[in-house]
Amino acid sequence: MADTKILLTESEIPTHWLNLMPDLPGEPAPPLNPGTMEPAGPEDLSPIFPMGLIQQEVSADPEIEIPDEVREIYKLWRPTPMYRAHRFERDLDTPAHIYYKYEGTSPAGSHKPNTAVPQAWYNREEGVRKLATETGAGQWGSALAFACRLMDMECEVFMVGSSYDQKPYRRSMMQTWGATVHRSPSSETQAGRAQAEHPTGSLGIAISEAVEIAAGDDATNYALGSVLNHVLLHQTVVGAECVAQLEKAGEYPDVVVGCVGGGSNFGGITAPFVRANLREGKRTRFVAAEPAACPTLTRGVYRYDFGDTMGMTPLMPMYTLGHDFVPPPMHAGGLRYHGDAPLVCGLVRAGVVEARAYRQNETFEAAVRFARAEGIIPAPEPAHAIRAVIEEADAAREAGEERVILVNLCGHGHFDLAAYDAYFAGSLEDPEFSEAEMQAALERLPETPALA
Amino acid sequence: MADTKILLTESEIPTHWLNLMPDLPGEPAPPLNPGTMEPAGPEDLSPIFPMGLIQQEVSADPEIEIPDEVREIYKLWRPTPMYRAHRFERDLDTPAHIYYKYEGTSPAGSHKPNTAVPQAWYNREEGVRKLATETGAGQWGSALAFACRLMDMECEVFMVGSSYDQKPYRRSMMQTWGATVHRSPSSETQAGRAQAEHPTGSLGIAISEAVEIAAGDDATNYALGSVLNHVLLHQTVVGAECVAQLEKAGEYPDVVVGCVGGGSNFGGITAPFVRANLREGKRTRFVAAEPAACPTLTRGVYRYDFGDTMGMTPLMPMYTLGHDFVPPPMHAGGLRYHGDAPLVCGLVRAGVVEARAYRQNETFEAAVRFARAEGIIPAPEPAHAIRAVIEEADAAREAGEERVILVNLCGHGHFDLAAYDAYFAGSLEDPEFSEAEMQAALERLPETPALA
Fold first, then answer.
1. Which residues contact A71 (CB under 8 A, 6 or more apart)?
2. Is A4 inside any structural domain?
3. Which domain holds residue B98?
4. Is residue A271 part of a domain?
């Protein structure tokens, strides 16, 4: 039988990140200054980000070199393994070849350290001593705590209330790496105190809190785990490794699948394949899987919106449910975000990426089926992607085609087993998305230039 | 810089397990039938074990071939990575070269699936439909649940009460893989009902419960996660991979370190190096790290004792605290066992292996130091081994020698973060070992032949 795992050596860790921004058709719509609604320049970002990252945010270079020290740290968990899902294929009775890239082998348990480490590095290079951030499911906060520890920096994390309550061990993990963790909304910030009526919190609120902390102290910066161009840039190490691994297997993907909250794991794994479509005429399909309770790509509108709930960050062109829309609590905390990465939204807008929304119970059904075949228990976020893989595998069987499916299994579910408990007990909800609440949130948005 | 990880390909998964029994000096003391106190034969084990495993238990073959299907399943996580602990070495300011073999990459999160999978396989080959077992920290129960799922068998787990309460997510994990889990002592068995006065439970009580279930049903067998020869045999895949990995690094260990509860991870990683000492005159040292609250190797007596609390299993020659000694609750649940593998005990007795006992707080101090250097958060059990590594690294610095230290990091601590919380809060106890309780337990033992 063919190998189960396709491994790379440390010398095969990519030397460059892949910047997909110059590949997008047309001129990119610039971010807007939240005060003036005029195009935002690097100076608008400099209070909370270092210049090294701001340059990456606006770069038109097709590739950006990875600093040596970052590559050295990547060796703690990279290259990550790619698996051929032999057992899952048999269980699904599909002719499809299913490959999953497993990012759960990082110490923090997800793909997030791929960007946490370089973000900490660029900040430290410019004299920043502390990073503040938000975390949803806890994956990002864990990753930044880990990265700051390796860089000898301080780390302060605002954790979305519902996740803080559901996942106390994510907090313990961050503390083990030396970070300070607050339940958001917290009493530490004006933004938190103003949102006390939303006790479950949201990513948007937590972002506002962390940004406020960073803006108020010169030696403290902010770090975001998704959405921004430089974050998706760093995650392209995932896609670059997949290219090399599939080459070793003698395959090329017919479809690449990932879950989308802010878009970083999806943007990371798809980047080189999207470029091959746009530049080399490849015909890979791309499927973005999101929760039906927070259906940004499938139900949101494409327009300018703030990155955070309070309206402090620049406005970005994206699909959005409205920056102060508060999605219902659910276990895939990392997917509870009102917007999505402008880069991913641009690809959806251009018809390059197809989005699908799934309900909570059907994603856990898919995750359990996967765990019982392959062993690994997925986090609730990539469970959405697994759900889409099952659909693709079924479609391959119906078409009688040996399609190659690549999916980003971006993290394990070791801190999400309470959700599995609820699923088995039949008490897992399928929270409803409120179209009316979205419309109300959209009506509260400021007027902004129309997007093409 | 030298590579961080030393990886093997799937074709380098060992083809044979290494049986150390024929290497031990002198005739092995046979197990005794618990009814007659006469040497026990294969027929004494057949009510609860399949012949395939019984043959391995008493085999004098130096090597035993691994079945193809087992090797195929091993590919889901094997070969496991070996890491050079560059950052930990720098933090310890030691000239030692520290290598850790990381078994936490298995879906169950520890080395336990190395034996769970072949145990399930040999049982299924002989028509057994269900396995019953105990679990302490939950590592073994998770591993057997995972293995039974892959073999389409049922699995029933008795989980030590204190761990069941501390680690609810270990239970969820077992249920995700389809197992039934009981809190031990349970009301399901006579053994459990008889021990209701020990609500925190112990490995010995849980073993008795599982053995009772297996003995009462022809299609159900028992599976033990440690102690027995065939379990240590299966774990030698760990040591065999280490030999190949250290060869790639151009190194040979001066000292090999592991924690010891029942002895399986320690027996597994040390086996080929012990053989090289005995057959080729190598001079590697072996350090077995155990908890001061359950100090079997450092404080117990060497004599025949039962494997379980109720006295249902054959008696084995080992260091023991008395089979009905109940160790105090602690977070390293996998190390709360009154005895130790006869094979490991024999090596301690012969002066080949040195044992050391550590208190709970000093092991967590070591684990946090390791996590902050290397990222991976160790389970409390291998934290004991990390503590011993720090001592060895200090000794190397004092001697000014570039010693090579190999340690088995046999599992991650993702389900043990409550213990880390307690450590940071300063509320972690250093439970006392009671010499008097041990003496009382030893006085309750039946008379048995003296051991040489």
1. A13, A15
2. no
3. 68-109+229-443
4. yes
CATH number where B424 lies? 3.40.50.1100
List residues bridging with A288 in a β-sheet: A258, A355
Torsion of CA B141, B145, B147, B153, to 10 degrees: 130
CB contact under 8 A, A415 and B414: yes
Q: Give the number of other Cβ atoms within 10 Å of residue B273's Cβ.
A: 22
**Is-contact B121 B151, C-beta < 8 A?**
yes
* Residue A319, domain member (yes or no): yes
- With an 8 Å Cβ cutoff, the interface of chain B facing chain A consists of 1, 3-5, 7, 9-10, 72, 75-77, 83, 87, 105-109, 146, 149-150, 168-169, 172-173, 175-178, 368, 371-372, 374-377, 414-415, 417-418, 420-421, 424
The answer to whether the beta carbons of residues B238 and B269 sit under 8 Å apart is: yes
Say if residues B275 and B268 touch (Cβ distance below 8 Å).
Answer: no
Give B140-171 pLDDT, tens digit per residue.
999 999 999 999 999 999 998 988 887 888 99
CB contact under 8 A, B107 and A376: yes
**Is the CB of B374 less than 8 angstroms away from the CB of A420?**
no
Strand, helix or coil for residue A104: coil
Q: Give a yes or no: residue A253 inside a domain.
A: yes
Number of other residues whose CB lies within 10 A of the CB of residue B288:
29
| CB-based contact B367:B386 (threshold 8 Å) | yes
Q: Is ipTM over 0.90?
A: yes
Interacting residues of B262 by C-beta distance below 8 A, sequence separation 6+ = B203, B224, B225, B226, B227, B231, B334, B337, B339, B340, B341
Q: How many domains does chain B have?
A: 1
Tens-place pLDDT, residues B181-225: 999 999 999 999 999 888 888 777 898 899 999 989 999 999 999
CB count in 10 Å sphere of residue B218: 11
Strands B220-222 and B301-306: unpaired
Residue A59 to residue A24: CA distance in whole angstroms: 13
